[in-house]
Design goal:
Length: 748
């Protein structure tokens, strides 16, 4: 693997026209692939065109202009566009808060200012970029993005329709809950728990604000944005950001594509069908189940690049401003990112003290991060803990210990045994960290500290909904860059490019063989708990032997053929890094949309009723309902039915409460997993249901006092009183779903 050479502008030789044009081919291919995918999935061509226009004119263009005015010097066109898009996303968030339904005013103001102010007009011109990615580099990044798009299509996009028609559809519960969050942000600010009336929701909501802004600006149906348009675009953007940031941070062009591949192509080094649940995942499942994961990964990339520039003392005031800006953005994208980065900077400070060469730079950077974090905890999160508590190794509770009491010292041998398998499965992609980095500088320490903190956080924190996984997920981008850095430094030791290409071909062929083995092999399970991690140990042993064999073979070949000299260690490390290549394809093929587990069934009648409400009510009018629980399947008793607020874009007075902050705190205090089955205010719940099942004028007046203008009844969960039709107007009915409109209050 060869690194791209950076040629200073003053001696750069103009590329021949044909080669210059070919550099755009990967980007055009990706654009055509995304467009073709969306059209093949039945997306309206007009919606595709409107969303493309909005992204280009409302996010990318103003963001790129703003980024060019803030960065110290140009690096590459791809960086300007990629990092500028992130700035555009943050500007979009500001516009959503400031202008609400007139979000488009924000980008128009930016464009107008950059046209009107003479000093800013120069940012419209294309600068001379010192870095130009090679065509091979560009096609490699495009290939990674296409692979990731393929996974997302099979695992999520192809199995979810925006709105159920023709029959019931199974939706993952989290999808409709988060869609309801985006719907609430479309019409209200500050954000509230969508099915708890006015109860404020302290949450990292920037990803869902992005969807709300897109719907407000284009008029595109929010479910179409959620289940079709947004995810493919965000996926391609994030792959590009990884590639650019890996290059910038390591100063090696190929570290970028390798880091992107370690994040979006390679999975855990396991036999997928026999992997214990406590391993979690990094890309599989999480990249589509929680939109904030991918959004936060995108915002983390320029944040890492700016922090690395500061730690290298290459930063002027503009770079410091970008570091703080991106730090603030990550707090609203995912709450776990900035604390990990802060610990990474703290590690740099500690090492400086130990080496007796202190510098003010990391201390100032850490102080800036601390100020941003305190502000986020106070303003965004309102000092709410969201149910997090201390719980060593509770991430492994399906393997060791008790789900009510946690783990005990007696479980330590089994914990150690499980942690070994955890290190094999999760750590194979991080093997590049330990190879060639002989003397770590501040940037390497920063990346390693953030990664290590993510791992420690996942292993020591307990949460009612297994959200401790988000610590290691937030730390993974730091580790992917560091691991890719190690691989390309080994590649630099190979004297011949042809030898490097041969080593890559051999190593990836071996990794492909391991992927086939992973999906076809079956290790007999031992009934006892001690046997659960055994398949991972077996696969880890096979990977290690394969890597050693490939490395030894190329080392011997290098003694006879000079071109292959130095390829042994590089090829062995490549085999280890890419050994988990079967994880994502296997997940897409066998567990698309997570099967039917943790799903809610939504019928066309239910969706049609909710959407009728959206079209005939105002956001100021709340909805009362008898729908509190899923009502079918394994989750029948759980209060996790969010389809009303998701499809109606209206706040529900008291619907489902499973994802409310009170539910998380209650379950955390009881040390119970999952959402609370009981509501913490039974009198309020009784008053809500009595207005439907035993209505009186006084009870309906109470609903009106709570801003309720409509009642949606799902008779599958209980039939309303016949008297309700006398006290309110039955305005819509289809199947078991009926909608009543409350009479306006009498004049006083």
């Amino acid at each position: 693997m060869a690194t791209a050479t950076i040629v200073p502008d003053r001696v750069a030789t103009p590329l021949p026209p044909r080669r210059r044009r070919s550099a755009w081919a990967p980007a055009l291919t990706l654009a055509l692939a995304v467009t073709g995918l969306l059209l093949a999935l039945g997306t309206s061509p007009l919606d595709v065109a409107r969303y493309a226009a909005y992204l280009g004119l409302g996010v990318v263009l103003p963001g790129t202009l703003l980024y060019r005015s803030l960065r110290s010097r140009p690096h590459s066109l791809l960086e300007d566009v990629a990092f500028g898009t992130v700035v555009g996303l943050l500007a979009e968030t500001v516009a959503l808060v400031a202008f609400r339904g007139l979000v488009w005013i924000g980008p128009l103001l930016v464009i107008a200012v950059f046209l009107a102010v003479p000093r800013l007009r120069r940012h419209w011109r294309m600068p001379r970029y010192p870095e130009r990615p090679s065509v091979v580099w560009s096609w490699t990044v495009a290939g990674i993005a296409l692979f990731f798009l393929g996974y997302l299509t099979v695992a999520f996009l192809a199995v979810n329709v925006p709105v159920p028609v023709g029959g019931p559809r199974q939706y993952m519960i989290d999808q409709l809950n988060l869609l309801a969050v985006a719907a609430d942000l479309k019409h209200h600010f500050p954000l509230a728990v969508p099915e708890q009336g006015d109860r404020p929701l302290r949450y990292h909501w920037f990803a869902y604000g992005h969807l709300a802004a897109g719907s407000l600006s284009t008029g595109i149906d929010l479910p179409v944005l959620w289940f079709r348009l947004d995810l493919p675009v965000l996926a391609v953007l994030t792959v590009g950001l990884f590639a650019v940031t890996g290059w910038r941070v390591t100063r090696h062009a190929w570290a970028g594509p390798v880091a992107a591949a370690l994040m979006f192509v390679v999975g855990e080094a396991v036999l997928p069908a026999q992997a214990p649940a406590f391993f979690g995942t990094i890309t599989a499942y999480y990249t589509w189940s929680s939109r904030s994961i991918l959004y936060a990964a995108a915002l983390t990339m320029p944040f890492i690049a700016a922090a690395a520039a500061v730690l290298r003392r290459e930063a002027d005031r503009r770079t410091w401003l970008l570091a703080v800006l991106f730090a603030a953005g990550t707090t609203g994208a995912k709450s776990t990112v900035l604390p990990l980065a802060g610990v990474g900077v703290a590690l740099v400070c500690a090492v400086h003290l130990l080496r007796r060469r202190p510098s003010w730079t990391p201390w100032l950077l850490g102080g800036a991060f601390a100020v941003v974090e305190v502000f986020a905890v106070a303003v965004l999160y309102g000092f709410e803990g969201q149910g997090l508590s201390w719980g060593p190794f509770t991430i492994m509770l399906d393997f060791v210990g008790d789900q009510h009491t946690g783990t005990t010292p007696a479980d330590l041998p089994l914990i150690v045994w499980g942690l070994g398998a955890y290190a094999i499965a999760m750590g194979a992609r991080l093997a590049g960290i330990v190879f060639p980095l002989r003397r770590w500088g501040d940037v390497e320490l920063f990346l390693a500290g953030a990664l290590a903190t993510g791992v420690v956080g996942s292993l020591t924190v307990w949460h009612v909904s297994w959200s401790q996984h988000f610590f290691i997920i937030a730390g993974w981008p730091f580790g992917a860059i560091l691991s890719a850095w190690g691989l390309v430094l080994l590649a630099d030791r190979i004297p011949d490019r042809a030898g490097a290409r041969a080593a890559v071909a051999v190593a990836l062929s071996a990794a492909a063989a391991l992927a086939v083995f992973a999906v076809t092999a079956s290790v007999p399970r031992v009934p006892a708990r001690w046997g659960v991690p055994l398949p991972t140990y077996v696969f880890g042993g096979v990977v290690l032997l394969t890597a050693l064999a490939v490395g030894a073979g190329l080392t011997l070949a290098g003694r006879r053929r000079a071109a292959l000299r130095g390829t042994g260690a590089f090829a062995a490390l490549t085999v280890v890094l890419f050994a988990g290549g079967a994880r994502l394809p296997h997940d897409a093929a066998t567990s698309a949309n997570l099967g039917v587990r943790y799903h809610v069934r939504v019928t066309p009648e239910q969706a049609a009723g909710a959407r009728w409400l959206r079209d005939h009510s105002t956001p100021a009018e709340y909805v009362a309902t008898n729908v509190h629980r899923v009502g079918g399947g394994e989750q029948a008793r759980q209060s996790l039915a969010y389809w009303i607020s998701a499809y109606s874009e209206r706040r529900v007075l008291l619907g489902s409460w499973g994802y409310s902050p009170e539910s998380a705190e209650m379950q955390s205090a009881r040390h119970r997993l999952g959402p609370s089955l009981v509501y913490w205010n039974p009198d309020r719940l009784a008053a809500n249901d009595a207005a439907i099942y035993a209505p009186t004028p006084e009870r309906l007046e109470w609903l009106r006092s709570q801003k309720v203008g409509w009642i949606l009844v799902d008779r599958a969960q209980g039939t309303e009183s016949p008297r309700l039709a006398d006290l309110a107007d039955l305005v819509w009915q289809r199947g078991p779903v009926a909608i009543y409109r409350l009479h306006p209050p009498p004049p006083r």
